[in-house]
Amino acid sequence: MNLKQPGIGIAITGSGSAAPVHSLDNQGLSQLVETSDEWITSRTGIRERRLAAPTDSVTTIASEAARGAIAMAGLTPADLDLIILATSTADDLFGSASQIQGELGAQKAVAFDLTAACSGFVFGLVTAAQFIRTGVYQNILLIGADILSRWVDWSDRRTCILFGDGAGAVVLQANDRDRLLGFELRSDGTQNKYLNLAYVPQPKPLIDGVTIAQGGFHPITMNGQEVYRFAVRRVPEVIEKALFRANLSTEDVDWLLLHQANQRILDAVGDRLQIPADKIISNLAKYGNTSAASIPLALDEEVRQGHIQCGDTIVASGFGAGLTWGAAVFQWGR
Ligand code: COA
Description:
Layout: E1 9-18, E2 23-25, H1 26-29, H2 37-44, E3 48-50, H3 58-72, E4 82-86, H4 97-104, E5 110-114, H5 120-133, E6 139-147, E7 165-175, E8 180-187, E9 195-196, E10 199-200, E11 203-207, E12 210-213, E13 216-217, E14 221-222, H6 224-245, E15 255-258, H7 263-273, H8 284-287, H9 294-304, E16 313-320, E17 324-331
Parallel strand pairs: 4-5, 4-6, 15-16
Antiparallel strand pairs: 1-7, 2-3, 6-7, 8-17, 9-14, 10-13, 11-12, 16-17
Helix pairs in contact: 3-4, 6-7
Bound molecules: coenzyme A.
Residues 35, 39-40, 43-44, 118, 157-158, 161-162, 222, 224-225, 227-228, 261-262, 289, 320 line the site of coenzyme A.
C-alpha cells in the first residue's frame, strides 16, 4: 500500500524467539496423567513441549527473543520507542514489560503489558501499528511470551497436554510503504467461561464490618469442545474479514500463520479457507500451545529457515481466552 504521507506505514523488520531448554514429550506426560502419545498426537498434533525451569522467567525468555528481533532489524535497544509485552503470565501482576526494558537497556522506550491471551500477539501488532500510523513512534518492539506451565493443573489430562512455554518477538518500524494491509479484532465476553485462568477470592475479615477478598489464581480450566467449535467457526470468518479489508483473497496468501493450538484446528481452518497445507505454518508438534508466543515463535523459525521471504503475504490469526480472536494481514520485511 502506498501512502499519501511518507513514513507512517508499518514494516516488520526483525523477528526473534526463545524457548526454555527443558522438553517434556508425550511419553513423559503419560507418567503424570493417564494418557498416551497416540491419544495426544492424534487429537492435537503435539509431541513435546518446552517447560520453563525455576530459574527462567517471562522476562528472561522475552528478553532473549527480543534481542534476536532487534538485531535482525539492524537496531540497538537504544533505538526503541515502545515495548509491548503480550502475556497472560507476567512475572509481576503490575507488568513485566518494564523489567524487559531495563534488562535490554532500552532507556528511551516506554513499556507496557497487554493481555489478550492467545490473541495477544495479533492484538499487540495492531496496537503497535496505531502508534506508528499516528506518527508518534518509529521503532516498536512487540513480544509475545508466556509461561503457562506455572498455571496448568498437572493432574488434569484435558488441559496439561496442550500447553508449553516460549517467547517470540518482532520489531515494527515506520516505513514509507505500509506492509500492514488489513486487520480485524474481536472479543466475546459472554463466552468467557470456556477458558479461564481466574482469580478466586477468599473472604478475609479485616476489622469489624470490613471484609476484603484475598485469594489466588486457580489453574487453567477449559471446555475443550466449545473452544474447538469457537476456533473453527470464528477464525476463518475473521481472516476473511481481514483479507477483505486488505482487498485480497485467500489465493493471495503466501502463508497462513495461525495460533498454534491444535493441528486439527489448523487443518480445519485451512480447509475452510481452501488454503493448501504447504502454506500453513505449523510447529506445534515441538512446542504445544505457547499462548501469546506461538505466532511470533513460528514466524521467527520460518524466517530464519529462509522459508518466509521479504514481501511474502502472511495472514496471522490469534484466538483464545476472553474469548478473543483476530487476524492481521501483512507482508514480511521492509
Ligand atoms: N488422554 C487420554 N484421554 C483423554 C485425554 C488425554 N489427555 N483428555 C481427555 N481424554 C478423554 C476424555 O476423558 C473423554 O473420555 P470419555 O469419552 O470416556 O469421557 C475422551 O477422551 C474424549 O474427550 P473430549 O474432551 O471429547 O476430546 P476431544 O476430541 O474434544 O479432544 C481436546 C480434546 C482438548 C484435544 C480438543 O477438545 C481441543 O483441542 N479443543 C481446543 C482446545 C484449545 O485449543 N484450547 C486453547 C485455545 S487457545
